UniProtKB/TrEMBL annotation:
Membrane spanning stretches: 12-30, 36-56, 68-86, 98-118
Protein name listed in UniProt: Uncharacterized protein
Keywords associated with the record: Membrane, Transmembrane, Transmembrane helix
Species assigned in the record: Spongiibacter nanhainus
Length: 127
């Protein structure tokens, strides 16, 4: 595969990751904060994530720096809120809460993890 094609594919993966993170933030926060605040927070999160991805691109794909900059936004903005919600509930889980967790895991967490893996493999192929 040519270097230009790999760069294009990495760009598409990054756009997909940013849109998934933005969608996850909007989905999780719109009921808690309201639509306008969720939109503002989502935009801020996407900008911070984009900054982290740009910092990761400057590092070698096998370095710890790359892994930290690449995975930090996902951990901070997606995984941590889900874990806080999950462990913060003292009462027994209702079917609605279980379905919400499954929906978030299958709609956001799994695709984001898969795209992070694909991007890492493309970066290694590009080097």
């Amino acid at each position: 595969m040519e270097r230009r094609q790999i760069r294009l594919l990495r760009g598409l993966v990054n756009v997909s990751l940013l849109s998934l993170i933005f969608g996850a933030i909007l989905n999780l926060l719109s009921s808690l904060l309201g639509n306008y605040y969720a939109l503002a927070v989502g935009t801020l999160v996407v900008l911070l994530t984009f900054y982290c991805y740009r910092r990761a691109d400057a590092a070698d794909s096998s370095s710890l720096t790359y892994s930290l900059w690449r995975n930090l936004p996902t951990l901070l903005f997606i995984v941590v809120p889900v874990l806080v919600y999950w462990y913060g509930s003292d009462a027994s889980w209702t079917v609605t809460e279980i379905l919400l967790l499954v929906q978030v895991a299958t709609s956001y967490l799994l695709p984001i993890l898969c795209l992070l893996y694909v991007e890492r493999r493309l970066k290694k192929a590009q080097q």
